[in-house]
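Review form for a predicted model. The reviewer records the input and the model, then writes brief findings.
Reviewer: anonymous (R2)
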Amino acid sequence: KALAGRGQAEANNAMIRAQRQRMSRELAARGYDPLPSQANFLMFPAAAGLGEALARRGILIRTFGGALSGWCRLTIGTPAENDRVLAALNEIRGETEPTSDQRLDQEETP
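Model under review:
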């Protein structure tokens, strides 16, 4: 059982690393500037009201006051959860252009 648990933990860690990289790239593509991270979350500066706008869409992120006012912390989720965050950010910003992942897919299509 311990070995099976270890394998699951390693798979989960690999997923988090891949999704952290993806979300960092996608946030940057949307004009946010996430800090480098080795954790299961990303910190990035954002305009006031982003946390509330996401909350209205059922997505919770950590917003800060004081010395960290204007910063948000986004926990890295599953690919589906992260897709939902990105879609909400697109909606909030009124974006209609494809994400960088979609652009890569389109470039690879013959």
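Findings: The longest strand covers residues 41-45.
Further findings: Helices lie at 2-29, 50-55, 79-93, 100-108.
Recommendation: see findings above.
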